[in-house]
Amino acid sequence: MDPMGSAAAANIPKKPKIYVSKSESDNAHVKDDYDDDAEDLWWTLPQLVLTEIFWLLPVKDILNAGLTCRRWYEIANDDYLWKRKFHRHFKTDPCIALKPGAVSWKSEYERLTFGIPFVQSQCLKGHVHQVLHVSFSHNGEMFSTCSKDGYVIIWNAGHPCTEKYSQNMKKFNWKYTQYSQFNQSDSLLLVSGVHFGSPHSTSGEIAVFTVDGNVESHLRCRVINRPYDIFGTWFSDQYLISGDLHWLAQMVSTSILWLNKANQEVDSEHVPIMNQLYKFYNRNASSVRAIMMAKCPWLDESNDPLITASTSDEILESPSDDIEMSEHSLTVQNSVGNPLSHSASLRRAFHISFDDSTPSTSTASLSLNWSLQRSNDSTIHYLDEYRREFTGDSVSDESVDEEEDEPMDASDEYDEMENSIPKYLIFSTGSKTYTPHQIGIKRIRNITFPKKLDPGPSLKERIAAKKAAEQQNQFRDPDPDWWDYEAVADRFDKVDKVIDLHGHIIGMALSPDHRYLYVNTRPWPKNYIITNPLEPPPIAQEIDIHVIDLMTLKRIGNMLRAHKAYTPSTECFFIFLDVCDDYVASGAEDMHAYLWDRYYGISLAKYKHTDVVNSVAFNPKDNEMLVTTSDDFTIKIWRSRAKAKQMNVDASNNNEAFYLKNSEDK
Q1: Are 99 and 83 in contact (CB under 8 A)?
Q2: Dihedral Cα 428, 322, 597, 639, nearest 10 deg
Q3: Which one in 62, 101, 362, 571 has a CA-CA gap of 20 to 30 Å to 341?
Q4: What b/e string do you get for 111-124 counting C-beta neighbours within 10 Å, with b at 16 or more?
Q5: Where are the alpha helices (DSSP H) in 160-284?
């Protein structure tokens, strides 16, 4: 294309006279008829000048002008014009290239304008208390919600969304449900909840229900889960992971992860239904929490980052910023949001004296309502290699989808432990204080589940072995010094990688291809010195998002001051986020949910509730559908403007969602 357009203009002696039909502009038929009158000089303008004029027009006028004639149509669809429009409207870095796989800058502008979830199509009110969590089935046909009313409800995801199943977990002595997850074949639903008990109780439970078909949902199994904020997760299609916590000494404990069969109806008492998976050492009253599984098909012995990476803590702190204490006190409502972590009660459970005379930055000397004085930039900043390697998850999703589409028949002989697929076990933990501030990663290798219980040695054999060990001085002290990790390290499984995020972790989510881990944190003050592990540092009111590449186990992106949270560290609760192929979404305590584009990192929209937004979830088969849940007892369904038009959803009075990038282009 001639950038000046002068040659083309010189070869056209006459200007076409345009007639446009009365039908809608997008279906207009343009007819050209040459007229001898060339008084209008628009046709003689050089193309560069005309392009600049188009650049100054609002987007709607550009589209309308493109229906005028062939020349204006070509200018209205010029990719460079739309690139400038895109960067101007969404305020992106001009150096960022077009997303791989995208057709044009115009199509990207259209996707981020008409293709993002924006129109509230429904407001479901099936729960009568705060709604804490939402999750979708892998086929996108169902989603489940958990609430403090003690119910878990499974909904049909089609429009309009309707209730399919519901289970009242209070009949099992549950206080409330807090988390749910579908298995790979979408035939079973894992539900995690909290038991009734004393304020110091950390007891929870996992229940598994059938959800396939149109028949009533049935209970398959129940498994103790302690502490309850370990949540639980599926290990494979028919096996799940639960946790247990045992105290070894003051502020020293061990977290044991158990592998459980989803179907625990067995014909013999000699057939095992659970088996110990890992046993981790916890210091300073911390524990393993929020476990999840990541399938990592790219892993092998030649490129395993855990082989060459240091196992010591990698500290990922925010850039050095000035930290200023707020003059205003913080009002906290204990009844809002997801349930508090069990660690919130530890300060009351332990009675330990610490030297208060040590000069340091402590919680007592700082207000909980401190804020980071940073530029108000809600953009995810990635390293260059992220966008170079960004493929929209298309390659990895194919392998995942193929696996998910395979029929799962428990009677067939197949790799039920899925050892052919390399995996990471990911969880939040801590070492400096009891609040979770570190990401723990464990490579899972060749897990087997016993077919028959091993009765072990007889009493006579055990006594003989004990005597032989005592004679050889090989008998281990039954009550060792648990505070000395090096002395007892052989009794525990080693965490392969620990990443310290220097802040309170309040949410984690994997990308669809399990390549990237997105983490919500509320940062600590920089260079804060912790002298009492039961008095964690004050946390910011702003939530940061960190992006960790699981292929390299390094942070490749972060967004500072992304959204808001107000509760102090001792009462902080989970704010669930979700990631799809194109977008990232998260709840917040400021009564809104937020949406960002994954590739460009830009903030796109926020969704209004009347109380804390606890959880969000994308439909895995339709990125244009988002579900948000809140303390206002509601579940809101958001769809794109394009989908809303197809479904005849009235979007004219939509005042519950807001674009975060306002400009004259709208």
Answers
A1: no
A2: 80
A3: 362
A4: bbbebbbbbbbbeb
A5: none
